[in-house]
Amino acid sequence: MSLAPPLLMEESASRTRTRSGAQVKDESSSACSLLVKYQRLVVYEEQVRQSPYDVSTWCSYMEEIEDGLSALYEAAENEKRRRKSAGGKSVEVCGRVVSPGETKSVVRELQKARIMIGERCLCLLPGSYKLWRLHLQFRCSPPFLPAHYSSVSSQHRRRFKGALIAFERSLVRMNKFPRIWLRYVTFLLTHHTDVTAIRRTFDRALLALPATQHQKVWPPYISCLAQALPKTDLLQHIPRLPATNNRNIPVETQLRVLRRHAHCFDPTARQTLAAICHHHSRWGEAAQLYFDMLNDASFVSPHGSTRHDLWLTLADICTQHPLQVKRAGLDFDAIVRAALSPCKAEEQQLGEMEGTLWTKLAGYHIRSGSFEVARSVYEEALESVSRVRDFTLIFDAYVKFEEGVVEALMELLQDDDDDDDSNEAQIKQEPTSDSTSDLDILLGDKNIQTADPQQSQNSSADVELALARAEYLMSRRPLLLNRVLLRQNPHNVGEWLKRSQLYQTQAKTRMAITAMEEAIKAVDAKKSLNGSPCTLYITLASIYETSKKDAEGARQIYKRACTDLEYDFVDADDLAQCFASWVEFELRQEQWDDALSISRTSIAPATASSEKTKSNRASRALFKSFESHSYKKRTTPPLSSFVSSREGRQSSSPSTRYPFQHQLPKEEEEEEE
Asked: What is the pTM of this model?
């Protein structure tokens, strides 16, 4: 059923409004001649003539006719079903007895009279909402205008157009009443009107009604579109019309209406709009909507979705469809980096999503074809995360990416080899002639393809490079994991020592020294755990002594810890242990005088001559340390006797010359013998 254009409706409505008083009198006289057979209706006619502006009288008049029609409808239904109990009985309608054979004609008379009376009262009282409601309700009633009728029936077509004109006339004065608009739309939906006409009617209602009443128009408007929407979890809350009212609504129409609803009326509907865009493959718009929801701190999902869910949905869309997201003007790289920045991470409440977002960002660049950028993202992520779970997630994705690159290059290399084999076989099968051989002699080797060996060589080099990258990545895993644990707690002495040991295992002495220097600067003696801070200096000195064979460098490390008081030890025993290691080092270097002086210095009372001594509590309490005195007691007597005997040269026994003979090399022991 096609809907009459709005201009034609307005013209017909204006013609109806400008009817003259003579036409009204003619309708009144025709109504009287029509209703003279009905006694009760004649009484109402006399009442409305006496008080034509009484709304209650007109309402009672129309209700009386409707009651009579209801009785006739029931009698006609009984006659149609041929009920023996009701068949053959007359029905009293408005003071007139109607026989069974007159039912249809009387129904037509009363329907015509009801329409005429409604038009009469509205001409006199066009501003009465009650009269308009009764008049429109009768015109839209199923007995008067069935919901499904044949388009060939001219009578029903005239009634349909008359109802449309009546609605348009009512909206001239009743355009601020939402129930009139909703009844109009329901009428259009019931009679399968064009979708465009329904949409325009809803738009007119939103323009005419004040903003405070839009909440009554939007739910049926969205319900009208809900038949064409996908049945997903996010759209279950939308009420849907019965299945008989299915319409083929264009996707663009759905999206435009839902955009207006989300941006102008209900901001929480953005998630529903994003889900519909996701269903219709509008990836750029869906990503933009999720980004706006995440930027809105006051946004609360009507479906119970958390910010974690919104982040994951946005990341999945951007990772799977990077080109569409870029065309929409969304920079996913900048979004993730801004969210993972230290100042924004707590505000966004990402929790354990850091590793997931880094992985999604790398996948975004991989699908965009930027493999080097993806590698840099993985490296940056491994250097920034502070949770073992995030590290494992990122590292596994990184390894999977490198393995995928190796497999792809291997497949390409295999395809190239197969193509070369097939080309060689084809060349062997081709017959040779003297002319072609002469031509080959003249042309020389120019016609021979020399690019294939170079290409295969480059492909094999790429495969070797990819394999080297994967192996290097796997070899770095212990160091990367150690760095994550140190970011969790930089005062973990055991992890620093483990890091130095890992570098020494890989023969990276300089990196091991750098790690120990970083540990000395990072570890706070008051917060240290899993080891004593003095082991950092001792390990660093041992690296200089054993790995670099630099005795002077090791001596400088001990001076920094013991003499210069570079590190503020909390416990005096830690400083005493550094002195003890220094003495043992000097003994290994056969510096007996230095070892004796260092041993005596360790138990000498500290003087307040320097500012460092005043501020260093461990140095002031060193002479009271039990470990210092016990170590001095073991080493000082033999060292003193050795020094004194060496000065006098009175005795030359090996035990006197070398008090720590068990520490001498075997070659020196043989020379002494």
From this structure: 0.73
